[in-house]
Amino acid sequence: MKIVVLAGGVGGARFVRGVREAVRRAAPDAALANADIDVIVNTGDDWWLAGLRIAPDHDSLLYTLSGQNDEVRGWGRVGETERVSAELQAHGVTPDWFTLGDLDLGTHIARSAWLRAGLSPSEVSRRLQQRWPLGVTLHPATDDEVDTHVVTTAGERLHFQEWWTRHRATLPVARFEQQGVAEARPAPGVLAALEAADVVIIAPSNPVVSIGTILSVPGMREAVLTAGAGTAPVVGVSPIIAGAAVRGMADACLSAIGVATDAGAVARLYGARPAGGLLDAWLVGVEDESLVAGLRADGFAAAAVPLWMRDLDTSAALAAAALATGLEQARA
What we know:
The chain is of the alpha/beta class. The protein has a single domain, classed as Rossmann fold (3-Layer(aba) Sandwich). It is 38% helix and 17% strand. The chain has 13 helices and 14 strands. The strands form 4 sheets. Strands 5-2-1-9-10-13-14 form a 7-stranded parallel sheet, with helices on both faces. A 3-stranded antiparallel sheet has the order 7-6-8.
C-alpha cells in the first residue's frame, strides 16, 4: 500500500510522524502493514538568507521524523546553541528576528553547498534523508523556487518569513504571491508517488500558504485528483478546531483570502469532489461535530474525531482515523 501525504510546517510534521506510527502499529495482516509513505512537502516558505537556502517545512519534517526536533520549542534541533547566529547578527548579515541554531545551520550549509555544486533540491533532500532512518520518503513539492511573498494593504512587499516571523502575521494582507509558481513543475518523484497512491491525505497544515502552495504548482492538483489512476481517495484533516488554528497563524492567512477560521469553511475552500473540488472526505474535531451534517450535505464524507496531537499516541490515533476513512472511501 502507498500512502501519500501533502504537508507543511510543524503540524504537518507531527501528523506524518503519526502516520508512520499508525503503520508501525498495524497488525501484520492489516491493510496498512508495511505501507510506503511518501510526503510532498511545501517549499513556499523557503528562502535565501546569508547566502544559505533555508527550507523550514522540509527540515521540520526531517528533524521530527529523525528524533532530532526540539519538542519543547516545537521547531529546530534539540540541544541547540546559537553562537553562530549571534555572530551573524552582530555583523549585520542576518536580522535579529530570525535566529538559526548552530546545528540547524549545519543543515543549511550542507544544502547550499550541494545546490551550488549542481544538485537539485530533490537530490539534496535525498542526501539529507540518508543520515537518519525516517521511515518515509520526503519530496519537495517542486525543484523550482516558488518563495511566497506577502503584499500588504499598504502596498509593502515582504518575503513570507518576514511577515510571519518578524511581524507575527499582524500586517493586513492584500494578497499572497508564490513567485515563479506559474513556471514551476512537480519535483521528480512527486507525480510517480501520486500515480501509485492508494490514499492521499491532506495534513492539518496551513491551507493557504502550505497546502495551497503545493496545489498551486501546475499539474499538482490534477495529479492529486487522478491519484492511483483515479481510484485513490483524498482525505483532508482540519487544521482548525472550534474556530481557532491548531498551530501557527493560519487564521491570519485565511482572513487574508476572505475565508472564515472554521473547519467547515476550510473544507469548502478545498471543495468536495462531487462538486468539482478536491476532497472525498474531511475530518473535523469532536468540538466541531455540529458541522458534520452540513458537510455531508455538501458532498464530503465527513466525520468528527479527536484532532489534538498531544503526543505520539494521539497523533497515531488521528492518522489511523484518516487512513481508515480513506480505506472506507476506497471500498465505497
